[in-house]
Write a structure and sequence with these properties.
There is one protein chain. This protein is α/β, with parallel strands linked by helices. About 35% of the residues lie in helices and about 25% in strands. The protein has 14 helices and 16 strands. An 8-stranded mixed beta sheet has the order 12-11-7-9-10-16-14-15, sandwiched between helices. The protein has a 6-stranded parallel beta sheet with strand order 3-2-1-4-5-6, sandwiched between helices. Strands 8-13 form a two-stranded parallel ribbon. Strand 11 (about 275-285) and strand 12 (about 285-295) form a beta hairpin. The chain starts with a strand and ends with a strand.
């Protein structure tokens, strides 16, 4: 029998407890040994809840119990999760987590600490909720050099953009709907400004390119400036608008960012709607592969945590190496990475649009979508944001919006 503990009895933590309880025989069979949920740590009381039988309030009770072999953390935030993870790993207790803040900031260090103590630090649930992506990257897709990883990594923003696209509703109205349904927090900044997706693409880029990619180094554009007119252009181009976290290797440099992109019909990310997430990888041998599913939610995320618990149990006394060097990777300037852009200009600049489009490698001015007035637009060839900005300044035009094309 292997005894485990769960830290945090919130949404994800209670889901982990539910799975370990209701599916115990299945989890035990998959783990190769009987699994005993011995402790749940939380500062709160839960009168009448069956968790009372295993509830404790002091982490030292858990970490000093020699029977505990695996700890799963679902509290969120860097502290005290980081301190708890260090204490556990130093004692040879494997640690798994759904905590993206912890993994992004301390993942490389905790992987190394696990190696030093013949334990494991696993974090499948930190990106993509129930979507398996971490383990495929470190165990299955190891023959390839990755040159791109891009994904819809935040269900809240994807829900908002889908509603705007399908129902023609303004951003503010859809955001309120998302908050009413519990998809968005009362303070939605982490979602709508791209911070949540930024932490997740930082983790994926650190694994794909094997050095630390820091969230703080990523340029991020959210979705608050996406309007109904942008969707009108998207429909005219047979495209949708998605907030993508993306990391790409080009000419020996890695470029990473979060931004809204126009995604064409032929791209597998095009049809990913609502609160669903998807992650697309491109390898030099495999080419494209995509992972799709529920990117958040109680049981979807808890399922990934329990999968890590099972893996930790199967590997007791055996460390699984993960290639993630703590040395920070110096990222290329995202403003220099060439994309094609949709450029929207004020109507007063219509006479300059064709010339500017030609100067930027484009093919002329677009026909205005039905109902769009007061502006003009064109699509550039592959140019950097710096080149685009400089050309617009020299032409003395007023840019309403630029959107990158994901093709």
């Amino acid at each position: 029998m292997v005894s485990v503990a769960v830290l945090g009895y919130g949404t994800v933590g209670s889901g982990v407890v539910q799975i370990l309880t209701e599916n115990n025989s299945h989890v035990s069979r998959r783990s190769g040994d009987a699994v005993n949920l011995k402790y749940v740590l939380d500062l709160r009381e839960f009168p009448g809840d069956p968790v009372e039988k295993v509830l404790v309030h002091d982490f030292q009770t858990i970490v000093n119990d020699p029977e505990i072999r695996v700890i799963a953390e679902a509290m969120g935030g860097i502290e005290p999760a980081y301190t708890f993870a260090k204490q556990a790993l130093e004692k040879g207790i494997s640690f798994c987590t759904s905590n993206k803040e912890l993994v992004e900031a301390k993942g490389a260090e905790l992987i190394r600490l696990a190696a030093e103590n013949n334990a494991n630090f696993f974090f499948e649930a930190s990106v993509g909720g129930g979507i398996p992506i971490i383990r495929p990257m470190i165990e299955c897709l190891t023959a390839d050099h990755f040159d791109e990883i891009s994904g819809i990594l935040n269900g809240t923003t994807n829900y908002i953009l889908t509603k705007m696209d399908k129902e023609g509703l303004p951003f503010d109205e859809v955001l309120k709907d998302a908050q009413d349904k519990g998809y968005a927090e009362r303070n939605p900044e982490a979602d709508v400004e791209g911070h949540d997706a930024g932490r997740k693409i930082a983790i994926l880029a650190s694994l794909a390119f094997e050095k630390q990619v820091n969230f703080a180094d990523l340029p991020m554009e959210g979705i608050t400036k996406i309007d109904e007119t942008a969707f009108a252009y998207a429909k005219a181009l047979s495209a949708s608008i998605k907030l993508l976290g993306t990391a790409r290797r080009k000419d020996g440099k890695v470029y990473a960012m979060v931004a809204p992109f126009l995604v064409p019909e032929g791209d597998p990310l095009y049809a990913v709607d609502g609160v669903y997430n998807a992650i697309k990888l491109h390898g030099d041998m495999l080419e494209n592969v995509m992972f799709y599913g529920q990117g958040a939610g109680k049981l979807a995320t808890a399922s990934a945590v329990v999968s890590d618990i099972e893996d930790c149990i199967r590997r007791l006394g055996q460390h699984r190496d993960i290639l993630w060097d703590p040395e920070p990777r110096v990222l290329g300037d995202a403003e220099e990475y060439p994309f094609r852009y949709l450029v929207r200009l004020e109507e007063k600049d219509a006479g300059k649009a064709a010339g500017l489009a030609t100067a930027l490698g484009g093919e002329g001015v677009l026909d205005a979508p039905a109902g769009v007035t007061g502006e003009t637009a064109f699509i550039t060839g592959p140019v950097s944001r710096k080149e685009l900005t400089k050309a617009a300044e020299e032409a003395d035009v007023t840019v309403i919006q630029t959107l990158r094309l994901n093709w």
